[in-house]
């Protein structure tokens, strides 16, 4: 990933979710870009919402993202810069976890989400960060999202405590 694209990705994640960007700073430097890319992908999926009662257009869009990962594994990239970044930065063996994340968002759109998006994000982060680091960093971001009503400083303190100790604050 070019340095300019990498900077744009970090800025994009930071704008959409300052808590996730803050959590990414705790990722090991050699995997931070891949973790930011995973967050950018998850945030893009999270923007896909059902319009009124009709969930099918949103499900089709989420299925498109899921199917594009299979196309990436076959070497096909079609015009979407985020997919091109995924192909360059993420090993094809990890795509199944990223596809599961799209499936979790499909459950969310259908109203069947029993809290499956955060565990799917954690599962996708594990091959990048390792099990313990993924649990702490993704757990911290999930903790922050559950405490969105608190001040940003309080959320950052809670996230730091969770990452360092593995416990909620």
TrEMBL record:
<dbReference type="Pfam" id="PF00494">
    <property type="entry name" value="SQS_PSY"/>
</dbReference>
<protein>
    <submittedName>
        <fullName>Squalene/phytoene synthase family protein</fullName>
    </submittedName>
</protein>
<dbReference type="InterPro" id="IPR002060">
    <property type="entry name" value="Squ/phyt_synthse"/>
</dbReference>
């Amino acid at each position: 990933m070019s340095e300019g694209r990498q900077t744009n990705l970090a800025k994009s994640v930071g704008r959409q979710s300052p808590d996730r960007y803050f959590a990414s700073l705790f990722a090991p430097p050699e995997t931070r870009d891949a973790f930011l890319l995973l967050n950018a992908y998850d945030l893009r999926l999270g923007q896909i919402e059902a319009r009124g009662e009709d969930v099918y257009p949103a499900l089709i869009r989420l299925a498109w993202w899921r199917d594009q990962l299979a196309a990436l594994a076959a070497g096909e990239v079609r015009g979407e810069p985020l997919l091109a970044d995924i192909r360059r930065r993420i090993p094809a063996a990890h795509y199944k976890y990223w596809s599961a994340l799209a499936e979790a968002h499909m459950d969310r759109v259908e109203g069947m989400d029993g809290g499956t998006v955060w565990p799917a994000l954690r599962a996708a982060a594990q091959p990048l960060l390792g099990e313990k680091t993924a649990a702490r960093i993704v757990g911290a971001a999930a903790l922050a999202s559950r405490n969105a009503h608190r001040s940003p400083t309080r959320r950052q303190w809670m996230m730091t405590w969770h990452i360092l100790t593995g416990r909620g604050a």
